[in-house]
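Model the whole thing, not chain by chain.
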Amino acid sequence: MLHAIGRAPQQVDPAIGARDILADFAPTESVAPQDVLFLEGDEAVSLFDVVHGVIRLCRLLPDGRRSITGFAFPGSILGLSVRGSYAYTAEAITPCEIRRCARSAVTRLLDTRSDFRHRLLSIVSDELCAAQDQMVLLGRKTAPERIVSFLLWIASKSQGDGKRVDLPMSRTDIADYLGLTTETVSRELTKLKQAGLIAMPTPHHIELLRRDALDEIAEYGEAESRAFTGKIRSARWPS
Amino acid sequence: MLHAIGRAPQQVDPAIGARDILADFAPTESVAPQDVLFLEGDEAVSLFDVVHGVIRLCRLLPDGRRSITGFAFPGSILGLSVRGSYAYTAEAITPCEIRRCARSAVTRLLDTRSDFRHRLLSIVSDELCAAQDQMVLLGRKTAPERIVSFLLWIASKSQGDGKRVDLPMSRTDIADYLGLTTETVSRELTKLKQAGLIAMPTPHHIELLRRDALDEIAEYGEAESRAFTGKIRSARWPS
DNA sequence: CGACCGTTTGAGATCCTTCAATACCAGTGG
DNA sequence: CCACTGGTATTGAAGGATCTCAAACGGTCG
């Protein structure tokens, strides 16, 4: 399943060091693209920490429809499950470096290292927040808004000037992440290109040409109005 | 077992004693329907524990589109945020009993009580799993599937024989939770009624008449095929 | 070159939304 | 008792955003 790659270790982003919470407790392992770290439903024996690369987290419906519930970038934790089994499948998209830690060791770390405890809780709390962002995107955003939100999100994950973005994942992955089809993803990207908001030297390299316009489309600055969210409704509780 | 949509009924009132993790540390408070516990963006000063009732968690887009990212039932934890501010607004739907615990006290509990630590982590881990269920629903399920999944999920949260369900929330709430419009919610419910799968004595009381057929529609037993999720793709990492 | 795979483009169909009207229920006042 | 009101839910008709099906394009590799 995982084959160690004999080549020289990828350099780890220095900026990520602070979040590599297993750095002191487990060695890194190399994972090749398309390799499966674990399958949904497998017994959750280990916790994983992404040091380098991008990993996709998928779920399947019985009839084959796929949903990508997240892309894991360096700093992400994978495989947390208090119940016995993994909630999703994790597959590498790019060559990755990960750390693996047995569940029992994690429990021990939680009990003995308060710094570890707080970092784990912090990461999980951030992931919950990201999950809610994604629910808003899937539930209420239009196709162009989803695409632009996605591009800006990837850009924010990349080092660099924030103008050049590379998309390691396929159009199918993007579609399954955004709740769209590959055709729609492709069409919306070409529309953005034709509108002059992005450039696309290759399908996997995007340049953000007009950040202002893109921010606008993505409804950046989400929920700035923090007013009462509901219409005023009858105070009675429906019997 | 896999975490499918209607999964793991965490039982209500009497049984949730085990999950009422602040029971020993904070008194209960009453909250009236439509009351706001906290607003998205507010400084996250407290953690809340739902003892009784149902609470909705909402997010807003700048133009007013609303997304309900979850309904909190007894046993849920609200307001966890390691960053400074709440990620969503929490509003009571029914009369509720909650416990409130200051952030500093939570930190202290985390450091001193390993039972508290494990229960909190367990709850958060379940919430992450539920969030992924919801992403699959929003990203890949059709309107009828969403409605039925929702009904079965609510049923699993209710005590009783699992046949009678009551929906404390409005059609608008359901729509904002399922990424649909109220009209579509209403239409799909009447279709189910006309097909004889449910009865609807009042808009807020549903009876599940043919559980087998409903399970089928909701694609219960999600992802039983745990095979490799992706098509086989080129092993090369796109340059 | 020719096959393969991923991406893009096109045309038509469909599911869901939008807009609008009607129904329903509880409370209130004539 | 009944009309009236406000809020929610339901129903209808029409439109549109996205999907489906299908073909063309463009790289890579044998």
